[in-house]
Amino acid sequence: xxxxPLQVQRLKYVPKLPGMLRxxxxxxxxxxxxxxxxxxxxxKIKALFPNTYGxxxxxxxxxxxxxxxxxxxxxxxxxxxxxxxxxxxxxxxYDALKATNPENVLYGFKGGPSGLLEDNYLVFDDExxxxxxxxxxxxxxxxxxxxxxxxxxxxxxxxxxxKHEITAIVIIGGDDSNTNAAVLAEYxxxxxxxxxxxxxxxxxxxxxxxxxxxxxxxxxTATKTYSELIGxxxxxxxxxxxxWHFVKVMGRSASHVALECALETQPNICLISEEVAEKKMSxxxxxxxxxxxxxxxxxxxxxxxxxxxxxxxxxxxxxxxxLIKEINEMLAGSKADEFNALASWKEKYAFIQNxxxxxxxxxxxxxxxxxxQQLFLERDPHxxxxxxxxxxxxxxxxxxxxxxxxxxxNGTYKGKFSPLHHFFGYEGRCAFPSNFDADYCxxxxxxxxxxxxxxxxxxxxxxxxxxxxxxxxVAGGMPITKMxxxxxxxxxxxxxxxxxxxxxxxxxxxxxxxxxATWAVETCYTYPGAIQYYGPDEVCNLTTRTLALxxxxx
Length: 554
What we know:
Radius of gyration: 25 Å
Number of domains: 2
CATH superfamily of the largest domain: Phosphofructokinase domain
Strand order of the largest sheet: 1-2-13-12-7-6-3-4-5
Distance between the termini: 43 Å
Structural class: alpha/beta
Helix content: 40-55%
Shape: globular
Strand content: 15-25%
Oligomer: single chain
Number of strands: 15
CATH topology of the largest domain: Rossmann fold
CATH architecture of the largest domain: 3-Layer(aba) Sandwich
Number of helices: 22
């Protein structure tokens, strides 16, 4: 296999473990904390998870290992979208498993949860796993988005585990995947299978976090990757001095990625979806806000700039959210077939006008035709608009352009506006993990096996104190049910892990809020450059700005 010089060196990198996990398997003991309760809807969650609810948080410490000695056969699943560091979770799990007992076995189920249901697997050995250490991607076993949520699926999973004498399953995923892990853990406990389920917190979106989970893995690497690209664009903008760059970044349900990239690069504009919702901002208000920056900079002779747009921001605009809801209702059932049978956009436009309320059609009519048509592209499996297909960066640049043309007519703007568009998504999902993510992910996997060895079920592998050097990190676990509440999903109340949104009274947003007015008018760009793997700690082992601000390190 041909590999790059960087990959040769990264394969040799030895990830750092938390201090208490460095003592050797036989010198790690458990300290139990308080019993836990869910973040909301305690009685309902407790009723749904009678066997796994209310368990204690735990931390690992130096001491005599009191776990029962037995052969462990573990299965691991990568679930959902890729995130840098996933391979190291598997490597950490494998190394801890083999260090405990060389006879232990690790199965990798291929293609995500469907691999478990279809009994499609490989058995890891040293030669195979050593090819993937400290590398990006999920190609070690592949991933998938099949949900484990029905009794039939759980029964199949139990049979596959019984066939291979599997004692535990580790599910590496985001909020939905770990919700599925909690439900599977409850099923296994209720049916006396003896199979444990452990989750690991993954998502580059950064919305799987709380007082216990300080950061989901992959967020560090992805935001550093996007910030490098945005910094390069800023440098180009400041060199050419003739383009406004509208950059859309990942973040369907939360704006953590956009905010972190803004903290890293100091662009002229960064929209925060949660603030848009809080202030009930209209498309016109957002357009005005961006156009004010364009006009103020043009008045200083600077007809260039950079704006960061979160992927899902349009869903947070109340009038746009109402429009999407009406479109979903309008195309319910056979109406979708009737609409799709229309031959021309003109006919479809008339259909839309007749089907929407006056208010929603007024919003629809202000949209560029390309965005109007994107609202009627292929529906998701539930028949709803796929908001991720909407090119919001082009939407806002078009609205700003129209806004500026009106200003030109009344003499309040005399500049030039030439927009360019970018979407940074896949570029960050499989990057070589930063040292932070390489260390963090390896620790999560190693720690997951310690939870298995001590018999825990329905727990999330937890590494905290992450803003400090790895030696000071704290390893342990928490019941997944602690993060859960009830939400309405597809017409039913379901237990789910609560997504973490950007906190508008949190330190990262407040830091941004205090400085953005200056950034909007002046050129304050910062250029993070490429991720560094070798060199001084301050450049190759730094955490995200978000984590540093949250922990008072900035």
